[in-house]
Amino acid sequence: MRRPQPRSRGPDAMVVEVGHYALVLALALSLVLTFIPAWGAHTRDSALMGVARPAAFAMLGFAALAFLALTIAYVDSDFSVLNVVQNSHSSKPLAYKISGVWSNHEGSMLLWVTILALFAGLVAWRGAHMPQRLLAYVLSVQGAIAAAFFLFILLTSNPFARVMPAPFEGEGLNPILQDPGLAIHPPLLYLGYVGFSVAFSFAVGALLEGRIDAVWARFVRPWTLLAWAFLTLGIAMGSYWAYYELGWGGWWFWDPVENASLMPWLAGTALIHSIVVMEKRDALKVWTILLSILAFSLSLIGTFLVRSGVLTSVHSFASDPTRGVFILGILIFFIGGGLTLFAWRAPVLRQGGLFAPISREGALVLNNLFLSAACAAVFIGTLYPLGLEALTGGKISVGAPFFEATFLPLTVPLLLLVPVGQSLAWKRGDLLGVAQRLAAAFALALAGAIVVFAVTRRGPVAAPLGIGLGLWLILGSASEIFNRSHRAGASLAVVLRRAAGLPRSAWGTALAHAGLGVTVIGIAATAWGVERLATMKAGESLDLGPYQVTLEAVVPRNGPDYRETAALLAIRDGDRLVGRVEPGKRTFTGRSMPTSEAGLLTVGLGQVYASVAEIEAGGSVGVRLYWKPWVLFIWLGAVVMAAGGVLSLSDRRARVGAPVRRAAPAAVPAE
Amino acid sequence: MTRKQRRLTLIGSALAVLAVAAGLILYNLTKTITFFKTPTELAEEGFKPGMRLRIGGLVKEGTLQRGPNQTVHFEVTDTNRSVPVTYQGLLPDLFREGQGVVADGALQPSGEFKADSVLAKHDEKYMPKEVAEALKQQGMWQHTGDKAKEAAPNAAPAAAKPGA
């Protein structure tokens, strides 16, 4: 497959045609999947409904083939393909040739739709035991979404477009995208975004079928958890990438594109909680359906914001307005259609029962209220400037101060309530009992905050408070596991055995909430961060928090496809050398403008962060230095949260899948 | 609790949370939004010092001065009027004289604009949307030459925002 010369013609040139043709076939199959099973479900024709699963598998096969063909074109540096010319270069390392596939608009849309087809295929695979009518509707909706995006790609963003004559060399990949973090960020994020399409399809399927119950919740829950776990990882990855690659030292900027991924995450977080209420208590049905529609709608809005180029933001690489209008059409069709169907059919659904306010389900309602309010705040802050500009032409910007002042008051009370809600019993909770069970956790968290405050007396007050809150979340989770395993007089061995025997969903919940606590601690610790701006000459030193930083030299050096001027900095703690960082300015082949490369040194869970501002004449450099204690907790917490989600996903009740109650109806042969 | 009381508790708490959220959003919107102004608008409309604004235009050729501790002075122009800007901190990689910038900050009593963040074109192909539009409004689009023409179909920008 690989030869030393980049080339544009040869036997493999067929690969691109095969890929393009596969994409057209995938579109045809998605149309089959949209109409035939839905018609079958409507007329209760079992044969037509039976088309759903094979059509979903075939659609996945052809979408994957198209994606594979584009990947081969990138790996082979086939510069007869316009997309490869614009985004690759034959001297790129293999890993970035592959990640180059989704670093651009066309390729990332192909990845988006391939993942959508993947979820349709997975639902079809796991759906052998599902009621046939529901499965047919669900796969039809997946097919319809896929059809819209296949059309979008083929009509406005064809990654297989050729260029004639083929240039000898590509233009190279935007250097800030050449990074392991960004290589895996889009696939993770899309697995999350697009994963919510399954909940959407199930919601629309339930509305079309006019029937919804706890069993429905049991089918949807694993897909939603899976999407949520990927989205959590994707957001964390994106945040870490922005932190070290953009050279600004911050980890969250309330940039519209970041908000675009935060909104579905907030709605999805609400959804995984409301689904539990539905599964356990057969309540909150209509609300859960609405949330399922909203979570995916927000994913579509996120795709629109990023892909249409309507934003002034670091991520807006796509910029063709015709594409924007097309995606807006898709957006209006699916969100409008979903909500209209909801308004029309939701009254048909049998309402669930009411319940006591002081109970697990009551606490989960509160969770949903706070999360929805926080999501609405982010939504308004993100879209208000766009709406105002569209309506009046006035240009405003809504920045971090708005989001901090609005988002924090809506999330901090929620965080305080998490351990309480987690310990409340279903149906009728006992607040006094909960208070007794949580007293130890609360006392420990408070003690922790006081100790931290005492040690850092001159520091900001927010940090010890935030750390106390984080400890409260972690200890609250630990105490929940302990209380469920411990009985008076039980030996340690018995407690451990009982703890191991708890359902995995209980462990998953505890782990995810503890992960949230870890992230909160990391965020709180940013208040202790130290920032220094300085112009340094070789040999000069300055203090940075507990360390001394010395500029040893400024040297030029070359990488595989860039030239760099690097500042070599030594970090010392007294006489002890802690480590070195080498931030620099890079100029990549084929690009005239330099990019900054930050230097990072991890010390425990904190990091020294250095970036070069300006290389000045006479060997001095302007540098920006940060000491960020415990900063890794922010992303580590997200990984723990996602692990909690996956653990919960592996719970027995999700794995068994086939519920007894509904598998029996005579009209539903299990294919 | 009766059924009715339960229902009322639920609805009441929902309304309370939503009311608080709506209040927070409205209050913070009026307090924290910043308006985008061109140097001409800044001069003609007259703004009180201290009000948060976002300005945009081109960095005027020959005005960039570097002071100690990474303090920089430059003028932002829409080719009609220009406004002096001071900024301390890391400038974006693509900050250059003659290139488009957007700066957030506030006017000082001296008439100088003190910026706390500066955004520039982050890629040689792109230009901040506000700058492109402000230049078009001024009829100065052609004036900026080949680079601007190249940027015209790609008005989507990428920003660099030092400090947060």
TrEMBL record, chain B:
Subcellular locations according to the entry: Cell inner membrane; Cell membrane
Membrane topology reported for the UniProt record: Single-pass type II membrane protein
Protein name, as recorded: Cytochrome c-type biogenesis protein CcmE
Keyword presence, Transcription regulation: no
Cytoplasmic side: 1-7
Pfam families referenced in this protein's UniProt entry, alphabetically: CcmE
GO molecular function: heme binding; metal ion binding
One of the GO biological process terms: cytochrome complex assembly
Gene symbol of the encoding locus: ccmE
Annotated positions binding heme: 122, 126
Chain intervals for the UniProt region annotation (Disordered): 141-164
PANTHER family xrefs: CYTOCHROME C-TYPE BIOGENESIS PROTEIN CCME HOMOLOG, MITOCHONDRIAL
Family (UniProt): Belongs to the CcmE/CycJ family.
Cellular component GO terms held in the UniProt record: plasma membrane
Taxonomy, superkingdom: Bacteria
Keyword annotations of the record: Cell membrane, Cytochrome c-type biogenesis, Heme, Iron, Membrane, Metal-binding, Signal-anchor, Transmembrane, Transmembrane helix
